[in-house]
Amino acid sequence: MITTAKRLDIIEEYYFSSKLREVRQLASEGKPIINMGIGSPDLQPSQAVIDAVVLAMQDENAHQYQSYQGLPELRQGMADFYKNNYRVALNPANEILPLMGSKEGIMHISLAFLNEGDQVLIPNPGYPTYTSVTNLVGAVPVYYDLKENNNWEPDFEALEKLDLSKVKIMWIGYPHMPTGARGSLELFEKLVAFAKKHNILLVNDNPYSFVLNDNPMSLLQVEGAKDVVLELNSLSKTFNMAGWRVGMLLGNAACIDAVLKVKSNMDSGMFYGIQKGAIEALKSDKTWFESMNAIYKKRRILTEQLAEKLGCKVYKEGVGLFVWAKLPDGITSAEKFIDEILYDKSIFITPGTIFGSNGEGYIRFALCVKEKKVQEAINRF
Predict the structure, then answer these.
(1) Which residues of the chain fall below pLDDT 50?
(2) What InterPro entries does its record include (predicted)?
(3) N or C: more exposed end of the chain, with fewer CB within 10 A?
């Protein structure tokens, strides 16, 4: 019997990997499943993006190994995107690193900076991958609370009471996943000051800032942020390119270089055609965002109606690709609640518990379902 590595003893299979097998099994049995669980955009990239990929396929360089740092014009496109949309100036030569999706960046950053026993501040609730990757590299998760009565923002007094001597990285993400809390420039300034005071690498996970949000922000807007900040961003949600796996890491040049040392030993560069499509996507003007948000706004209105039909209280201030809702009084288990709906009404909704203990009592709906399907879900009740 070949034994697995000990690191697997402290992680589990990703929730959606296992749960979606269950959902697919129900669908194979003829159940009319409506999947409102995962944030995988069902909309298409723009035709210009698709055309750029098709054209690139004929380029004589298209099928060779590509640079670990991506095409220079892709890094320039990312720099222009940040300048035009966030008013952040970045040097494409050493402050930007294209990634095969921002999720891989979580692993690369962790491998580059964490030693065994180092501690990592992780939001509760927050993206589960922060915890699993921290465990995989032998570091120690330290959870900090985000709660509705504080608008899902950190309690800095509570943070200051922690022993921060072993903390190396702090993960944040605004607009926040799963709640949709917007954050603010004032919050970002506090976070940067906190990171500088305690010599912590502050990493902002920022893939949702253009979805139903009239004020996109970057942590790098804060003066002096580059001293301690890295930011992850992605084309997955913004440009409906989730399966293309195009992300970016931006910020401190020395930190970018450290991550490149890891990344260059783990892949051989992003496919040329995808890079060309990404370059075209990054040129999109405000009409693209307006057209996408017009669709998402209609879906959100209907999804809120569905949540309220279930007796839930919607977090109305939320932005991004999800609707976050508090369960009715008396419901003690989010997972039991969503399973009853899955098996009785064939609708899959995400329980808040997968994002941390502060997610108990909440559920999350993705806006990646067409209006007629959301209406059908409402009608089932």
Answers:
(1) none
(2) Aminotransferase_I/II_large, LL-DAP_aminotransferase, NHTrfase_class1_PyrdxlP-BS, PyrdxlP-dep_Trfase, PyrdxlP-dep_Trfase_major, PyrdxlP-dep_Trfase_small
(3) N
